[in-house]
Write a structure and sequence with these properties.
about 25% helix; 20 strands; alpha+beta; five-stranded antiparallel β-sheet
Length: about 325
């Protein structure tokens, strides 16, 4: 008889269950399989769940338990940040500098099909900091100013990207393509407007819904990168330099509500405050896993000191069309 999981739910931390002593990753996989339905129910309840004390010591161990928790992989599309690829659908969580905080976001909220599940695993815990905070997007939606929510509900959000080998990601890496015609075909198929600039760089714009419903629970959530890639989320000194050098139309990333009314610094401060109030975190220990419902919860990264090796895998693909979007995705009208 399988013993039911006990969830620790102290304030400020994600719901956590302790694993029993297990011999190896194969035993961990079997233990996870025995608790599959409990884990899915807890995930729908909490949005993200932490599993502590598993014998997961290598990329191979992580891939083995990943196959039990997320049997269907999701490709990493429209890449935006550097990651190490360990093969078999296992990546580093990010390769951005240790001193840089990563703001809350839902993975690939700007693509037409995105991962429904994310699995994070700790092989090496940093000396200080480096948690992977999570925020319940049902709670984020509840905490936001009603007028901003209604604008998003009615008009969606626009993402503009300028691809660059130095300031962001080259278009070849972002689209895993070497030919312009392959990028143009992908953009046409995925409702993205694209424009080649005189210097040969690519600019894209896409309109996406920013409020959707979970395809299984029906919960309504705040689901977008509006604050993540807003110019107002940049460090003030960096923002001023980029605007001076590139102009507002040349920033690597920028966001807007689809109604065309410019966002203010106060709007983005309200979004960031809502994320902060909804955020919980737990310090990583080797062997820890965290399973995240990518629709119900956003994730982030705290700055850290020391070695840190956190793996991630993505899967259980979800189409935005199956999430009752309040706005239909579409190519945005280019302003370039």
């Amino acid at each position: 008889m399988t013993t039911a999981l006990h969830w620790h739910t102290e304030p400020g931390a994600p719901a956590t269950a302790d694993a029993p002593e297990l011999a190896d990753a194969a035993a961990a996989r079997d233990w996870l399989a025995a608790h599959r339905e409990e884990l899915r129910a807890a995930l729908h309840r909490f949005g993200a769940i932490y599993l502590r004390g598993l014998p997961v010591h290598s990329v191979e161990d992580f891939a083995l338990v990943r196959d039990e928790l997320i049997p269907t992989a999701t490709p990493y599309r429209e890449k935006a940040t550097p990651r190490s690829d360990y093969g078999g659908g296992v990546f580093s969580s990010t390769d951005l500098p240790a001193a840089q905080a990563i703001r809350p976001h839902n993975e690939n909220s700007y693509t037409l099909t995105f991962p429904g599940l994310l699995l994070f695993g700790c092989l090496t815990a940093p000396e200080e900091g480096g948690a992977t905070p999570v925020a319940d997007c049902r709670e984020v939606l509840r905490l936001l100013p009603p007028e901003l929510v209604e604008r998003m509900r009615a008009h969606g959000w626009v993402l503009t990207r300028n691809y660059s080998e130095t300031l962001s990601v080259a278009w070849q890496a972002a689209f895993a393509a070497d030919r312009a015609e392959d990028v143009e075909r992908y953009c046409a198929e995925n409702l993205i407007s694209c424009q080649w600039r005189e210097d040969g760089h690519l600019r894209t714009e896409q309109l996406r819904p920013g409020i959707i419903r979970h395809p299984h629970t029906g919960d309504e959530v705040w689901f977008n990168h509006l604050a993540f890639w807003s110019e107002f989320s940049l460090d003030e000194d960096i923002r001023e330099v980029l605007l001076e050098e590139l102009g507002a139309d040349g920033l690597p990333f920028s966001t807007a509500i689809g109604d065309g009314i410019p966002l203010t610094a106060e709007d983005l401060a309200a979004v960031n405050a809502a994320y902060e109030r909804a955020t919980v975190r737990r310090t990583w220990q080797p062997g820890d896993l965290m399973l995240v419902d990518n629709v119900l919860a956003a994730h982030a990264r705290d700055p850290y000191r020391g070695d840190r090796r956190i793996l991630v895998a993505m899967g259980d693909p979800v189409a935005v069309s199956d999430c009752a979007p309040t706005v239909d995705p579409a190519p945005a009208v280019s302003h370039g």
